[in-house]
Amino acid sequence: PAAADGERERERESAADDVIIAELFSPSRIGAMAERQGMTPNVAFDIKDGWDLMDREQGLRARRILHERRPRLVVGSPPCTKFSAWQHMHAAKRTTQAAQEQYDAEHAEAVRQVHLCCAEYEKQMRRGGWFLHEHPYTASSWKLEKVQQLLRRNDVYFVKGSTCEY
What we know:
By secondary structure, the chain is of the alpha/beta class. It has helices spanning 2-16, 30-36, 56-69, 85-89, 97-126, 145-151; strands at 21-24, 42-45, 73-76, 130-133.
């Protein structure tokens, strides 16, 4: 029995090295679906699960895990709220300097989150893997220069789809 337990543990460790899907800024959704189809293991880095990717230490730890585990697919789902049409429609409601400064700070954080994803996508492509950037078609984040740089690559495809409820 002890040998069988040790063998099972080695199998789990070996399987843990073969990450199929890694999700950024998202609890395991796509990975959970893949697991239900028998594809395991998967990793997810989301604030709801205790991962603050914008925290320097946690972000470095997550990037180290991605580098070591070499997922086949990286799915980036940074919050899209600050890039939505609603934000632009309600710009007139930011009537005080404090409200505008708060919006500017939150938007800058959202841009950093997209940039973090783009950096991981670049690494992913150098490793020979795939990435999926999940943002609604109407999100203004598609106009960010780092996103545009990715879209100009011959090996990157843009697929139109609206996935956001906002």
